[in-house]
Amino acid sequence: MAFNFQTFKTRALTAVVFVLVMLAGLLWNPWSFLFLFSVIHLGCWIEYQKIVGLIDSEYRQISPFHKYGIILAGWGFMLWMTDSNYPIADLILYKIGCWIFWVSMGVLIISAILFFKKNNPRLLAHSVMGFVYISISWGLMMRLWGNIHQTVFMGDNWIMPVVLIASIWINDTMAYMVGSFIGKTPFSPISPKKTWEGTIGGAILAVLAVVLIGFYGFHFQVKPLLLISLTAAIAGTAGDLFESKLKRLAGVKDSGQIMPGHGGFLDRFDSLLLATTAVWVVFYLLY
Question: Quick check: 106 and 71 in contact, CB under 8 A?
């Protein structure tokens, strides 16, 4: 994979703007964090439904109750996964999220009964897969906020999500750079541009960078840094391949066009989607 300076320049400029928006959402306060991932959740769902509609044309005929009900249920699940950082008068946001989730699921089930022909099991399975792939991932991101209730990193609530996202970004960047200069061995036919040299080199450099910067720069413990960066490198690569497979089945190059040089929401967050769930599982089991 030859190095293309113009492509790298476009990706880099877009990435600067993207990073600034992400950092504002991640670091400002709990509500900006929730708003950021609520927008990402919606964007991912819109692109996912478009891609699945290209793979299975019948999915484009699902009822509005099905189409928007599953998205609202996913957002309700995200709110359900929040904690006491989100009070609204005498209510707590996670209780509102619980109601949104179950009411939306009820509407979805009723619509499946009323419009059975438009909501056959195969079409419902597409939406369930989207819920697992997108909504559960971003719901668990809400759990990572607060460093899983201060049992992993002591300090600001944003530390764990930022370490995870930084691990993904460093891994992707290093894999691209290493693969561009020395990559020769194809990693998978699903993603022809990805090489074994880039994948392994990116993972090693990402783990080293996260551990060294986290330990010497911020005095974080080595074990969680190592676990997050290694899990992110492995699961992130799997997430990238999964989204590439979806696009190949749909016959599209990018999931969307919101970010020049980076594609759409799924293109930008494909690695983070699987990595978030994987990191939550690892730390839930260990901590």
Answer: no
Number of residues that make up the chain: 287
Question: Could you tell me the pTM of the whole model?
Answer: 0.90
Rounded alpha-carbon distances, angstroms, from residue 104 to 47, 214, 253: 20, 41, 33
Looking at the structure of the chain, the number of domains it has is: 1
**CB half-sphere exposure, 206, CA atoms < 13 A:** 32
Identify whether the C-beta of residue 123 lies closer than 8 Å to the C-beta of residue 58: yes
> Which residue do the tokens 């044309």 mark?
57
Its domain, for residue 261, covers 5-286
Q: Are 82 and 94 in contact (CB under 8 A)?
A: yes
Closest CA to 228 of 242, 241, 209: 209
In whole angstroms, what is the distance from residue 270 CA to residue 244 CA?
9
3-state secondary structure string, 191-208? EEEEEHHHHHHHHHHHHH
Which has the closest alpha carbon to 36: 145, 127, 130? 145
Task: Give me the tens of pLDDT residue by residue for the chain, a chain 287 residues long.
Answer: 455 556 666 667 777 787 888 999 999 988 999 999 999 999 999 999 999 999 999 999 888 888 999 999 999 999 999 977 777 777 788 889 999 999 999 988 887 777 665 557 888 899 999 999 999 999 999 999 877 666 778 788 899 999 999 999 999 889 888 887 887 787 777 877 788 888 899 899 999 999 999 999 999 999 999 999 999 999 999 999 999 999 999 999 888 877 665 678 999 999 999 999 999 999 999 87
- Token pair belonging to 114: 């009323």
